[in-house]
């Protein structure tokens, strides 16, 4: 349940292949996703924790394959994902909050 109209962004996914080799910055995929810039003051009110070194927060759909260390290109700026937190509703992950730097 993604309640807002998302804005277009590019997600750069690193190290998604099946091999167990050393992490390589050349192993990357670029995927187009929808994000919503997130005001963390609302999250603090509802008990979500913050990340001290984060410069911003994004909300993405639950189906997006995202991990720490991936990058988001939004509004001609590149953000690195520091933390991924799931938001649950009725025993199911509804969306994810990304702390970015």
End-to-end Cα distance: 26 Å
Helical content band = under 10%
- Round the Cα radius of gyration to an integer and report it: 14 Å
Mean pLDDT: 85
Number of helices: 1
Low-confidence region ranges: none
Q: How would you spell out the order of helices and strands? A: EEHEEEE
| Biggest sheet descriptor | 6 strands, antiparallel, barrel
What is the global morphology?
globular
Quantity of strands, as a count: 6
- Specify the structural class: mainly beta
Largest sheet: spatial strand order:
1-2-3-6-5-4
How much strand content do the residues show? Answer: over 45%
Layout: helices, strands, pairs:
Layout: E1 7-14, E2 28-37, H1 40-45, E3 56-61, E4 71-74, E5 77-88, E6 93-100
Antiparallel strand pairs: 1-2, 1-4, 2-3, 3-6, 4-5, 5-6
Question: What would your notes on this structure say?
Answer:
The structure is a single chain. The protein is mainly beta. The relative contact order is 0.26. The mean pLDDT is 85. It is 6% helix and 48% strand. It starts with 6 loop residues before the first strand and ends with a strand. It has a 6-stranded antiparallel β-barrel with strand order 1-2-3-6-5-4.
Task: Give the structure's gist in a few sentences.
This protein is mostly beta strands and 101 residues long. Helix content is 6%, strand content 48%.
Task: Give structural attributes.
101 residues, mainly beta, 1 helix, 6 strands, 6% helix, 48% strand, globular
């Amino acid at each position: 349940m993604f309640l807002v109209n998302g804005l277009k962004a590019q997600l750069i996914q690193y190290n998604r292949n099946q091999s167990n080799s050393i992490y390589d910055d050349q192993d990357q995929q670029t995927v187009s996703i929808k994000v919503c810039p997130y005001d963390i003051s609302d999250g603090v009110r509802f008990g979500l924790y913050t990340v001290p070194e984060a410069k911003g927060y994004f909300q993405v759909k639950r189906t997006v394959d995202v991990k720490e260390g991936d990058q988001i290109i939004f509004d001609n700026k590149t953000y690195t994902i520091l933390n991924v937190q799931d938001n649950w509703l009725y025993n199911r992950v509804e969306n994810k909050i990304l702390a970015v730097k």
